[in-house]
Structure formats: structure tokens, C-alpha cells
Design goal:
The chain is mostly beta strands. Helix content is 1%, strand content 44%. Strands 37, 39, 40, 42, 43 and 44 form a 6-stranded mixed beta sheet that branches.
């Protein structure tokens, strides 16, 4: 009674100090002894546990054998009724005991946030919940050491945290000291823990991603408090990231006007008519007043919390008030059209200033980004009251995007400015120059039975792409090397082809015997391709000769094991392609070309041939030596009982 840690596969024995029988003096046996026994889960009212009981030949030991292993960590109730007696009619009193099986069930754990969860608040805690009380595997209490919290993955930067553990030792609450970070991939694990029965929990990890919690900001130009702003100025609202309507719909030149307030004096002033537009990245609004602003007036511009980023973070309501320049001797900068040109180019914009007093005008210019260099190339008076300046705009190499350009005109007393937008359109730049490194130029390779299983490796120095695009390296071979099918690779510095594959495509049709030597010679190179450009190596192409000589092979050791028709190469082709095939034994061979409608075009081979590796050339002509048109063609090999058909494409 009250035993703990009993094995789940245990039998239960009831042992008497003398032989027993039923109280009706009948004998106990394996058929009637079951009825004396009660076996239940937990207590006398619990669920029955199926069993079979037996009694030994001396009628002194009853063995109870549960039908299945007992459950792990289970309280078991077993009893025998007072319905047995000894040979002197002395009946026993009813007896019951309760014992507990050993806990062999490994604990389970749930981590919240769950694995692969997204949009988790950066201020969230991580909760680790166990199915039962836990401890460390050295039997000490749970603490911080059992938790891992990192950025990105197992090799990432640690995220500082504290932990709290509930009194039941079943829940660990992980509190990041400085939060989890915005749009951050978070990796967390629990390890080195076990239950009170020494059942260890395997390391359990999850990875989740936090939400974008950064509220977009807006910068206004002219800025709040600006003075002497030109009456013909445009107003720019620049957002820190792409924005959209609160209902997730996109912004456009039609609906953006309704988001903006433009008034004289303040928010309760008179409306100023305007038209607003939004740029294609949805990051800058341009407000163009319908007519020149009044001189020496306060202008109030505002946008409410009416736009949001893609994560639903709404911009804070923002406003600015600036003052236009006074009338009179004020220089006036004429409207400047927005301009654009392509990346890696420069441009010139003409600016006209009128000054009714005829003052000399000094020009200056600035950009809102250091990536665009600006300067006043020249300025001259074109009349007593008009000046013309040429503004040079030179973006940095490979830069593209948008910039607000501000032109200033100073008559010695007042300085006015006017803005316009420069758009630099991206272009696709070629990958950088690179060099071939291996095999060296004029290399000679030999395929023999000793090198047949080797691999030919082509190597080069890495090229780089200015836009960071993936670079695909493509092998090209000329003359004899054109038959090599070397795979293209991405962002790598080598590619490979097996000697066996080279051997398979070498033309051996002119050899009198399979053991004769053959070779191919030609030029090879690698092209670095990204976008619309493919750049050749600066030191290529290289020349290479490949020889095959398998003189040490005996008999038909290297003869094909089976008939096979290979894909032609090159494919598509113009005007000649090679068709390789294998003959496992001597046979009459026909190789025939058909058009897509099944009409015979050319019989390339029609003769008896011995076993071996074979190749045939089709020059894109029919049986009458006429060139056929571009299209899909079929070629069929018939050798003995072997028939195989493949497709190829002729592109003229």
C-alpha cells in the first residue's frame, strides 16, 4: 500500500499464508478467480482496468496481469473481497491497497508567440508553459539559464531579458528588457529542464516576427515658421515611408486633395484653392496653389491622421505655418517645372527672376539630399528687370530617386526661394569586369580510364552588380567546345562538368574502333549576366584542348550498357546541331528527322553500325539539300528493336 514508482508493466500478486478456497468450499481456479478482484484507476469509484488473474497450484498466490501496461504516473486501486476462506472455514476480511506507477511521460511545452507567428507587438512578453511542474536537469529551480532569446536565429545577437516563474513551476514569463524590436525576427528556446520524475524535455524553439510599430512621420517644406517664402512656391509633404488611406486603399492624384488643408492665417482662415498630387512611391505630396499666394500673408497647411503605412500605423496630425514675402521690391522667381533624367546623367535647369527695382540678383541652390550636387553654372541679366540663371544638377553615380531642389534669389535686401522636384530614373548597370582563373589558357586535358570519374571545374573571379542583382554566370564554348553542356550558376565563382559527360558528347563517329583517340579543341569563356547586360571576362576567351584515350580498357568494358538517344546540342540551334546516341550492340541504325506534322525531312543515318558511342550532325537541310524553316522538329533513332524519339528547335 502507498508504494510509489511502480513499473508500468508490473503484475500484482496477492499472497496468502495458507491455501484458500471459495467460501462455498469450492476450489479456486484460473476461471473463477477474476471475480474476486477489483482493479481500478485512482480509487474504488474509478475506471476499471482490464486484467486476467490466475492462482497457483498451491492455491496460495493470486497473480493479476493487467491486459495492457498501466498508465504512467497513475494511482492504482486493487482489492479482494472477503469471499475466500481456508480449509477450516476461516474467511478473510476484504483488503484493498493503492499504489502509484512511475512517471515515464515526458513533459510538453507551449511557447507563446507560436512558431512562425507574425505581427507580434514589439512590447510583448514570451510565455513558456509546461504541462507539469519543472526544474533544471541538475534538480535546481528554474531560472534565466534555461531560456534563449536572440535576434534572427540561433547565431543572432542576444536580446536582454528577465524571467519570472510561477509558484507551480509551470510557467516562465520572459520579459525583454528593451522590447523585442520593430519588424524583428525573434528566435527563442527553452532547454535543460525536466519534470520531478527526471523526464527531460527536448530543446524546444520557435521563431516569430514582430510587427512594424514605427509611426510614419511627415516633413513639410516650407517648414513651420519659415519667412519670406515666395508667393509662387509649391508646398511639399514628405513622408518617411510609403503611405495609404486608412481603409488600405491607395492614394492618387484624385483623392489626395481631400486629405490636405490649405488656408490663410490659421486653421479657421479662408481657404486657398490648390491641386495636390502624390508621387509614384506614395511618399511625397506636392501642393500647387491655383494662383500666386498673397504677399506678406501667413499660410497654414495641415494634414490630419488620415494616412497610414502598410502596417496600419497612422501618421500624427501635422501642420505648419509660414509667411510669404512682402510686396514691393521683392524678387519674384518664375515657376520652375519639375524635371527628370536617367541615372548617371546630369542636367541643367533655367531659372528666371524678375525684380521690378532692377537690383542685381545673386543665385544659390541646394538639394535635400547629399546625393545630388548642385551649383549655379552661370547667371546673367537679360533686361533691366530680369535675370536668367542656369542651375546644374549632378547626382552621384548609381543614385536614383527624388529630391526637392530649392533655388534662392537674393537682391541684397530680401532673399526668396522656389522649389521644384528632380526625379532621377533608375537604369540597369552592367556587372563589373572580372577574370577567368582556371583552367589556364591553352590547357590540355586528357580523359582516360584513370580520370574518367574526375570533374572539370571552370573558375573565375567574382563580378559585382551595382544594383545588387543576382549575377548568372553562363558558360560559352566555340568550335569543338561548343558541345559541352556546362550548367549556369548564380552568384558563384565556379561551375563543373563531369569528365564522363564530356566523353559522352565527344564525336567518335570517325573512329575505326572505340579505343582510338579523339579530341576537341576550342575557345571557352564565362559571361556574367544581370538584367539586360552580359559581361565577358577581361582576359578571355581561353583556349583548351580535351583528349580522350581509353587504351587500357579491355574488350567492351566501356561499351554502353543500353541503347540511348541523347538530347541534341546545342538546342535551340542554328544552323548545325549534334545528335549523340549509344549502341549497346551491333545493329542496323536509322536516324531520321521529321517535321512536327510527322513528314519525313531527312535521313541522317541508315547503315550497319557496331556497338559504342556515336554522334551525327544535322545541318538543318532536307534530303534535297534545301534549308528548312525555323520550328520544332522530331528526330527518331531506330537501332535493332530500340526506338526513341526526341524534339529539337531550329531558330534561324
Amino acid at each position: 500500500n502507498n508504494t510509489f514508482g511502480v513499473a508500468v508493466e508490473s503484475d500484482i500478486t496477492i499472497t496468502f499464508d495458507e491455501a484458500i478456497r471459495n467460501v462455498d468450499d469450492s476450489a479456486l481456479d484460473n476461471d473463477n478467480v477474476d471475480g474476486l478482484i477489483t482493479l481500478k484507476k485512482n480509487n474504488a469509484a474509478g475506471d476499471d482496468i482490464p486484467f486476467d488473474a490466475t492462482i497457483d497450484s498451491d492455491k496460495k498466490v493470486i497473480t493479476i496481469n493487467p491486459t495492457n501496461n498501466l498508465d504512467s504516473d497513475l494511482s492504482v486501486y486493487v482489492a479482494i473481497a472477503g469471499s475466500v476462506e481456508d480449509d477450516s472455514d476461516n474467511a478473510i476480511q476484504p483488503v484493498d491497497i493503492t499504489f502509484n506507477t512511475v512517471d515515464t511521460q515526458a513533459p510538453t511545452v507551449a511557447i507563446d508567440p507560436a512558431d512562425a507567428a507574425t505581427g507580434i507587438s514589439p512590447s510583448s512578453n514570451v510565455t513558456i508553459s509546461f504541462s507539469e511542474p519543472m526544474r533544471k536537469t541538475d534538480d535546481s529551480a528554474l531560472d534565466n539559464s534555461v531560456v534563449t532569446l536572440k535576434k534572427d536565429d540561433a547565431n543572432g545577437e542576444d536580446i536582454a531579458f528577465t524571467t519570472s516563474i510561477d509558484a507551480a513551476q509551470k510557467v516562465i514569463t520572459v520579459t525583454p528588457t528593451g522590447g523585442l524590436g520593430d519588424q524583428q525576427t525573434v528566435y527563442t528556446c527553452v532547454s535543460g529542464v525536466e519534470d520531478n520524475a527526471n523526464n527531460a524535455l527536448a530543446q524546444t524553439c520557435v521563431t516569430f516576427t514582430t510587427a512594424d510599430a514605427n509611426v510614419p512621420t511627415v516633413t513639410m517644406d516650407p517648414k513651420d515658421g519659415a519667412v519670406n517664402v515666395g508667393v509662387n512656391t509649391k508646398i511639399y509633404l514628405k513622408f518617411s515611408e510609403k503611405v495609404q488611406n486608412l481603409d488600405d486603399s491607395g492614394l492618387n492624384d484624385t483623392n489626395v486633395d481631400g486629405l490636405i488643408t490649405l488656408k490663410y492665417d490659421d486653421a479657421t482662415g479662408s481657404d486657398i484653392a490648390f491641386d495636390a498630387t502624390i508621387d509614384s512611391p506614395d511618399k511625397m505630396m506636392t501642393i500647387t496653389p491655383a494662383s500666386s499666394l498673397d504677399f506678406e500673408k501667413n499660410v497654414y497647411v495641415a494634414i490630419g491622421a488620415t494616412v497610414e503605412d502598410a502596417s496600419g500605423n497612422a501618421v500624427s496630425a501635422t501642420s505648419a505655418t509660414f509667411t510669404t514675402i512682402a510686396a514691393g521690391n521683392t524678387p519674384v522667381i518664375s515657376a520652375i517645372n519639375d524635371t527628370s533624367f536617367s541615372e548617371d546623367r546630369s542636367g541643367t535647369v533655367n531659372v528666371i527672376v524678375t525684380d521690378s527695382n532692377g537690383d542685381n540678383i545673386t543665385f544659390s541652390v541646394s538639394a535635400d539630399t547629399s546625393a545630388v550636387k548642385t551649383k549655379v553654372e552661370e547667371s546673367n541679366s537679360t533686361s533691366a528687370t530680369e535675370w536668367l540663371a542656369k542651375i546644374n544638377l549632378k547626382p552621384e553615380k548609381n543614385w536614383n530617386g527624388e529630391s526637392v531642389i530649392t533655388v534662392y534669389a537674393d537682391d541684397g535686401t530680401l532673399k526668396v526661394n522656389r522649389n521644384f522636384k528632380l526625379t532621377v530614373n533608375p537604369v540597369d548597370d552592367a556587372p563589373s569586369l572580372f577574370e577567368l582563373t582556371d583552367p589556364i589558357n591553352n590547357a590540355v586535358l586528357k580523359i582516360t580510364d584513370q580520370t574518367y570519374n574526375d570533374t572539370l571545374v571552370f573558375k573565375w573571379e567574382a563580378s559585382t552588380d551595382p544594383e545588387g542583382d543576382t549575377i548568372t554566370y553562363k558558360f560559352s564554348g566555340r568550335w569543338g567546345l561548343s558541345v559541352l553542356e556546362v550548367p549556369s550558376v548564380k552568384n558563384a565563382t565556379e561551375t563543373k562538368i563531369a569528365y564522363a559527360d564530356i566523353y559522352a558528347v565527344m564525336d567518335q563517329s570517325a573512329l575505326s574502333h572505340w579505343s582510338d583517340e579523339s579530341e576537341i579543341t576550342g575557345e571557352w569563356g564565362i559571361g556574367a549576366c544581370a538584367g539586360m547586360y552580359c559581361v565577358p571576362p577581361v582576359n578571355g576567351p581561353f583556349t583548351m584542348t580535351i583528349k580522350e584515350n581509353v587504351l587500357s580498357l579491355d574488350g567492351d568494358k566501356q561499351l554502353p550498357a543500353a541503347f540511348n538517344l541523347q538530347q541534341n546540342y546545342p538546342n535551340p540551334f542554328n544552323p548545325v546541331t549534334s545528335i549523340n546516341y549509344q549502341l549497346a550492340s551491333d545493329a542496323h541504325v536509322t536516324l531520321t528527322i521529321y517535321d512536327i506534322m510527322g513528314q519525313k525531312i531527312r535521313t541522317v543515318v541508315n547503315e550497319e553500325q557496331s556497338a559504342g558511342f556515336r554522334a551525327a550532325i544535322w545541318d538543318g537541310k532536307d534530303n534535297y539539300n534545301n534549308s528548312v524553316s525555323s520550328g520544332v522538329y522530331l528526330y527518331r533513332l531506330h537501332a535493332g528493336n530500340y526506338i526513341q524519339t526526341r524534339k529539337m528547335i531550329l531558330m534561324r
